[in-house]
Amino acid sequence: MSLNATGPIKPHRVIPILAVDDSSTVVSLYQADKKIYARSVTGWFSHWRWAMVWATQLVFYGLPWLSMNDRQAMLFDLAARRFYIFNLVLYPQDLIYLTGLLVISALSLFLFTAIAGRLWCGYTCPQTVYTEIFMWVERKIEGDRIARMRLDKAPWGVAKLARKGAKHAAWIAIGLWTGFTFVGYFTPIRELAAEVVSFSLGPWELFWVLFYGFATYGNAGWMREQVCKYMCPYARFQSAMFDRDTLIVTYDSERGEGRGSRPRSDTPAQYQAKGLGDCIDCGLCVQVCPTGIDIRNGLQYECISCSACIDVCNGVMEKMHYAPGLIRNSTQNGIDQQLSRATMFKRVLRPRVLLYTAVLVIVTAGLLWSLLTRDSFRVDVVRDRGAMARMVGQGQIENVYRLQIMNATEHGQRYTLAVNGIPGAQIVTDTQVVVDAAAARWVAVRVQAPPNAATAGSHPITFVISTQDAPRDEVVEKSVFLVPR
Q: What domain range is 286 assigned to?
């Protein structure tokens, strides 16, 4: 142990390293991420991105306020176990439709990714949409990129505190409104609004409003690109759906390299004589990227295909009087082989795209056909476990069942009950049942059979439930009838 002026120096653990040649480099296994100050950009793709922001948010925020048949048009009433989707009334037993919807969503994602890369991420993913909204608020309050960087470096004072406070207050308001709207899909939103105004929210409603509000505020305000780069699994498995004919954001390195500044008055012959390409190395494509990557380094999993770099690069090319498209939507084969746009589009119809399309069409058509032809009610049959089978007057064998009849229409219906399967078997309770609109009712049903109608054991029977209204629907449900020994 050695000493210095301030005291003993603690011994350090020595880690042996292998000798390497001069060409070796040291790579850090960890590097703190730098905050990304995305620059605002305008252009064709920017307009499309904002059009999708408006479209998705008008649907999300506006849909719960629509009414139909004296109720909320879109409501997933978990307490009543009924789901209203415009004219459809679904029950938990209709889970197959949710499964079909999820399958269609997955196949659509696969299809669009195989054709045009991460369009979902760049234009309609909630993370992208809310990040775009939060960044717009940030720019309006704190200014554009340079102003925000200066503000963050400035010492804390009244002006900085006011700007930061106003920004976060606006973010929190958007987050809470988003959480309120989300809960409004599960609790009637007008009742929810009245509870908010009267400060009488239930504990679970309050929890979920705050939870989703905090999630929106944290993901779009603080985490942003971290969600896309590290939390979202889509970025990890997208390469399995990409091929060399997938449309992606690409940099034409053959045209752009080598990079370097030059006077705007230089003709192509003059700057090419200096070994320069069309890229003036302004760095704007990096400054506008919401995930902070340099698209000139090639395809990277962090790229969400928002095309902001295309808009800003085309603006630079226009000012330099160069042809646009140095950065453009193209394919790897299109760049390498200098294919025309028409040729690239012809190569869209490749086996994986055709397979995704065929399966998607079949599943979508099947789901629509099932919805259009579904019965106006559903029935569940449950045996009474308190009395499996019993002997009643005149030797009759009786089994007891409970039928749940679920009316999936917006008006009350009258149903007729019947039983088949055993000779002489009949329902001895009321065979006429009335169920209110969009309601479910449990009905106790006693079925009796003659003593010699069947041998001892279990025998299959069917309940036939039909409506008395027109059009006439009929549901057949299977069960068993037990004959004691």
A: 243-339
Q: Is the pLDDT of residue 252 over 60?
A: yes
* pLDDT tens, position by position, 270-284: 999 999 999 999 999
How many domains, in total, are found in the chain? 3
Q: 376 to each of 86, 365, 431, how far by Cα in Å?
A: 15, 20, 19
The reported pLDDT for the residue numbered 56 is: 96
| Crossing angle of helices 158-183 and 44-62, rounded to 10° | 60
Q: What is the pTM of this model?
A: 0.81
In DSSP notation, 188-256 reads THHHHHHHHHTT---HHHHHHHHHHHHHHIIIIIIITHHIIIII-THHHHGGGT--TTS-EEEE-HHHH
One-letter identity of residue 88: L
What pLDDT digit, counting tens, does each position of 336-363 carry? 888 888 888 888 888 889 999 999 999 9
**Is residue 364 one of the residues assigned to a domain?**
no
Has residue 361 been placed in a domain?
Answer: no
User: Does 442 reside within a domain?
Assistant: yes
Give 457's strand partners. Answer: 483
Quote the Cα angle for 420-421-424, to 5°: 75
